Amino acid sequence: MTELAAVKAALKTQAVETPSWAYGNSGTRFKVFAQAGVPRDPREKLDDAAKVHEFTGVAPTVALHIPWDKVDDYAALAKYAGERGVKLGAINSNTFQDDDYKLGSICHPDAAVRRKAVDHLLECVDIMDATGSADLKLWFADGTNYPGQDDVRERQDRLAEGLAEVYARLGEGQRMLLEYKFFEPAFYTTDVPDWGTAYAHCLKLGTKAQVVVDTGHHAPGTNIEFIVATLLREGKLGGFDFNSRFYADDDLMVGAADPFQLFRIMYEVVRGGGFGAESGVAFMLDQCHNIEAKIPAIIRSVMNVQEATAKALLVDRGALAAAQREGDVLGANAVLMDAYNTDVRPLLREVRGEMGLDPEPLAAYARSGWAEKIVAERVGGRQAGWGA
Amino acid sequence: MTELAAVKAALKTQAVETPSWAYGNSGTRFKVFAQAGVPRDPREKLDDAAKVHEFTGVAPTVALHIPWDKVDDYAALAKYAGERGVKLGAINSNTFQDDDYKLGSICHPDAAVRRKAVDHLLECVDIMDATGSADLKLWFADGTNYPGQDDVRERQDRLAEGLAEVYARLGEGQRMLLEYKFFEPAFYTTDVPDWGTAYAHCLKLGTKAQVVVDTGHHAPGTNIEFIVATLLREGKLGGFDFNSRFYADDDLMVGAADPFQLFRIMYEVVRGGGFGAESGVAFMLDQCHNIEAKIPAIIRSVMNVQEATAKALLVDRGALAAAQREGDVLGANAVLMDAYNTDVRPLLREVRGEMGLDPEPLAAYARSGWAEKIVAERVGGRQAGWGA
Amino acid sequence: MTELAAVKAALKTQAVETPSWAYGNSGTRFKVFAQAGVPRDPREKLDDAAKVHEFTGVAPTVALHIPWDKVDDYAALAKYAGERGVKLGAINSNTFQDDDYKLGSICHPDAAVRRKAVDHLLECVDIMDATGSADLKLWFADGTNYPGQDDVRERQDRLAEGLAEVYARLGEGQRMLLEYKFFEPAFYTTDVPDWGTAYAHCLKLGTKAQVVVDTGHHAPGTNIEFIVATLLREGKLGGFDFNSRFYADDDLMVGAADPFQLFRIMYEVVRGGGFGAESGVAFMLDQCHNIEAKIPAIIRSVMNVQEATAKALLVDRGALAAAQREGDVLGANAVLMDAYNTDVRPLLREVRGEMGLDPEPLAAYARSGWAEKIVAERVGGRQAGWGA
Amino acid sequence: MTELAAVKAALKTQAVETPSWAYGNSGTRFKVFAQAGVPRDPREKLDDAAKVHEFTGVAPTVALHIPWDKVDDYAALAKYAGERGVKLGAINSNTFQDDDYKLGSICHPDAAVRRKAVDHLLECVDIMDATGSADLKLWFADGTNYPGQDDVRERQDRLAEGLAEVYARLGEGQRMLLEYKFFEPAFYTTDVPDWGTAYAHCLKLGTKAQVVVDTGHHAPGTNIEFIVATLLREGKLGGFDFNSRFYADDDLMVGAADPFQLFRIMYEVVRGGGFGAESGVAFMLDQCHNIEAKIPAIIRSVMNVQEATAKALLVDRGALAAAQREGDVLGANAVLMDAYNTDVRPLLREVRGEMGLDPEPLAAYARSGWAEKIVAERVGGRQAGWGA
């Protein structure tokens, strides 16, 4: 197989998980703008996700958020997904939208609230059993807003205790993916604020616990690809929540704010053995399409990940290693930039053609009439949203 | 008058405006936690604001947000306030919570939306006429989320045009206070992102247009007291929206995150002639008490401003100037720090005693039974909140 | 002329000024690493700069830094440059490397130091008269390290006074370009910390005073292209000091850290009429090649500016305006991204061929033997560096 | 013992290590300003450090930097220190000021350079044996400036290998303290950029390896006290390099930029059992007094640490725990703020009096004539500085 053929083969195996909640309405604390045609229930979200996969070919799974996607019969939901060509992916817990969680969930000072939070997480594992999902993705909004508000260290003890109980419940082939976040919604301390904290907890929990990197959850200036390389080296990179940001956790389309950064991240993924199903690294989107059309935005995001991946795969690693060994700063940088500066869109059009897809997913989606159909049909009922 | 007497006299004249919306519920995009006893309408907000003034003695005015505080009869509302010992303060416009404003208000690409936004601002001036408010406070959520989304420069043209129309409508003794903000809710460009932009627009509009400094609206590391000193030097400091932050626009209680910064700001205010009614600088709170009790949080915030002001007034300016002239870096810094390190709480207790107030506003409020009363009485109806 | 022909014609007129000091050694506070073959005097710097122009065709001028590039006979230096195919460009003042400037220069508390600083600036204008340079570029290291160290506002008064004296000295066709910087070497206040401060001073000085945007001189997250658009709209953009950064004022090769940002900046330049000789906007490099080979790094930087410019010129502005008008967020963004994602290197190779240049400047330089020649010949003497 | 007596007793046991290099000249990349009277060799640095201890009573040890403080006979140097009332403290390695280290030291692509770096570290352990120092403090300037320049992950492998060799050489009672830094002098990647990386390496090395927190080495907005609490909980907090910053690694006097942050850090130290000799946590200064008088600046810094510690010790932990348990956000915050707002200077004057010291260290130092003496006597020779 030629090198280009290998790149194309790799691109055809790519899998980007889309999140059910990105199909619903979202917004900022100032306003959630409603969009016509937005799904009203988990099945409609799956319908939309299936469209993304239909046109991109590389979005085969859909993440659920519990309780946003709570249904009576998860097996039926999984079957519904399957009939549309997609599978259910990671189960995302939600311990931040109940009034009880005002001062935290798993780290709350009150044991009763912690119990409730842990029970919710255990329920999520039950759901995983039903859906066949392998990953429990944990993000905690826990933290404090004011110095002194709570005991920072005791909160770590509570966190460790709660995680351990959930970890013990994980079945064969199931993982716990722990996400960290710099800040928001807590504004003084966050209980899992950085990769170091997530890593330290995962290390103690065991091999089924791994870290999730949300690309919007870092301090300004943080070198995310360094974290990716380090977690891969430690065998602790569970996956990504992709999105992009100019300022804080802006949750814009991945690749929209700093495509070069996304390329560098994907390069470290490829270089560190994190690409490909056997790596166990999950590539998920976690975005808010506050003002743009949701399905096209998700298609675009998937394409942005593809383009960054293609460029990363095109890096001439032999030439790079040679320049690095020689201490040729400009030469080594030039090898990387050559790949980045390549226009990979023609290559991806070819790949799509070979996969039996329209080479232009966005145009094909626009022609499909789906957007008009959902606007016409999804009338009445309550639109899905972050809180729905 | 001794120096200490002068400081005490100055502290007695202090006036901190509290915002009607801080008495209602607020939150993050993840969750708004409801609190018992929260006001259900503008009059109940004024009732609460009157309590803050009753116990602190330095919170005599209340800012309104339109349309959150829309009433049929503003003169009656003003009278209602007056009967409770407070006055209506700045009118805050709101051009971000209508579905039309998804892509902006006064900077929107569509002239019809711009018209609607400007009409709202003109209506706010009408309300000022009715309430006797002197200040129109303008904060625009306008901006873009994605590069290319709109023409950055044309948006400035639209902004200038809209502001000019509103400026022309201002009556005698009325001002337009233009607020800037680094980001949020827009995540790529914000149309008034920094003091320079606000300043440039105000300069062209004329003397009735001034800049408002919201202490949470800056890039990380920004030296806010420098901006304060500069705007005072330029005669363009209209006032403050006080709050504090560790990360972004956290809207925590002012002085909670960096009390030394608040002191430095107040020092530049005092040094630059910005303290005192004649200065025209308005001191307003703009905060979100997401998880803490609202009235006590506002009382605490007012006290934090008082303490920072007291310390600023206590700076030995003669000694400071002498050390500065001599290039005595450590000596000059020590003069400033001496004032900052002083515990001014005894002094403020004295000041309150001399004003006929309880020296401990929070304890007095707690004893007053108001908290229990509103929890008991404000049942049913719809709690006020950012969107209420 | 077709559109592509117009783009190519525009690219052929591009002019990027290289700084004499970038050819010498530089470093961090921790270490300046010396490189073999580095120039030992201003003429050798011009020799190197001439090579950059020889191979790129778009680096026709060289900025000087006084006193680093002090010579007895500036006319002779200009003649020397001319004989090598380049011209002398902006004169950069240096008021930060004399022991007297420990507490500032033009803002120093001591009038004698201020006098010295202003005299240096006036001398720089004398040099401009001799070299025929049109631009005086002013960057001040002035500021304070500790709160209270000096009077923030008085320093502004001193700054205004000093600038006014120098402004008055400017001749016909001469400009003063005022640069701002967020921080470093001052760590508490900087006397010209942001574009607003520079703008306010330039506005008062008059039309010959304009603002310089150094792309590394902003707070984290600052939207630089917004500033560019705003300054162009105000007629106050004098030029750029190009470099790139991941953290602070890293002074890396322009385009190396965030090529998408550079493209967005160049798009606003083009869109705002800032491209082309008649615009008066100067495009200068200001970088430190601490660890990489200096001449190739500068060639690469010039090429990075070319590539960003080419992409900016390729934006389909008609399609962009149409999508913007319609509020088509994704469509408008896609138009911009189409240009960015284009590989413009083939186009630039064509442009160079048509200019009679080797299409690959770096390879041509490598083949030229210049690097080996200077290493062999520039032995002994004192290498030029920031302090040389 | 009453509570206040216990606080006073604790304060008397405090030990802050001062760094030999802070007595010498330092600066930024733009300029090192020389000061009269600065030491010319390690003994003169010890003389100055002894003065700081003489007047503060809590600065009993002095950190050395090798090779800056290289001498022929370390036992003699230790004896010299002892005769002046101080002891030699941590040995700091320096692998950044040799030309060989341009692309790194222990992480360099070339094995020969790595060998040299590791040999230097081993030599530092030899010196520890001679001086009786317990701590080897490691800070690496290693990193890269450009994407692609070197292999991020291989550099971690090299780092791990080098550290392991040095770790194996540590004797009984000796520790390795690994420092992390966000950026500078490397501007793209830093090989130990955050506490997580340092922690992961120390964990693998063993119990003698611990993490050092330099308070200036974090991304903007980082919650340092959270890191302190976490490292204490993990048993991996080796110590502090204290200084303060407004922007990057400004190296200002500790407590000068954000005294509230220093208090919060010291509170977590006290709360987490990190205060007191038995804790093993080392409190060291690492600062640059670029423009202020060096010895008074160090005295001031020691006093700032004392004041923050006193406030931390004064926190009413019973009341705090009670409020935290009840979820009383404002009440818990108020307990912390009460301690912070206390003016502890009278208490520290008492403590000093009881220790037989002048209650005002700075005034006493000023009266001592030492400053005048060193200016008069230390003439000729070469002033010590970062590179001396």
TrEMBL record, chains A, B, C, D:
<dbReference type="GO" id="GO:0019301">
    <property type="term" value="P:rhamnose catabolic process"/>
</dbReference>
<feature type="domain" description="Xylose isomerase-like TIM barrel">
    <location>
        <begin position="49"/>
        <end position="245"/>
    </location>
</feature>
<dbReference type="InterPro" id="IPR050337">
    <property type="entry name" value="L-rhamnose_isomerase"/>
</dbReference>
<dbReference type="InterPro" id="IPR036237">
    <property type="entry name" value="Xyl_isomerase-like_sf"/>
</dbReference>
<keyword id="KW-0479">Metal-binding</keyword>
<keyword id="KW-0413">Isomerase</keyword>
<keyword id="KW-0464">Manganese</keyword>
<dbReference type="GO" id="GO:0019324">
    <property type="term" value="P:L-lyxose metabolic process"/>
</dbReference>
<dbReference type="Pfam" id="PF01261">
    <property type="entry name" value="AP_endonuc_2"/>
</dbReference>
<dbReference type="InterPro" id="IPR013457">
    <property type="entry name" value="Rhamnose_iso-rel"/>
</dbReference>
<protein>
    <submittedName>
        <fullName>L-rhamnose isomerase</fullName>
    </submittedName>
</protein>
<dbReference type="GO" id="GO:0008740">
    <property type="term" value="F:L-rhamnose isomerase activity"/>
</dbReference>
<dbReference type="InterPro" id="IPR013022">
    <property type="entry name" value="Xyl_isomerase-like_TIM-brl"/>
</dbReference>
<dbReference type="GO" id="GO:0046872">
    <property type="term" value="F:metal ion binding"/>
</dbReference>
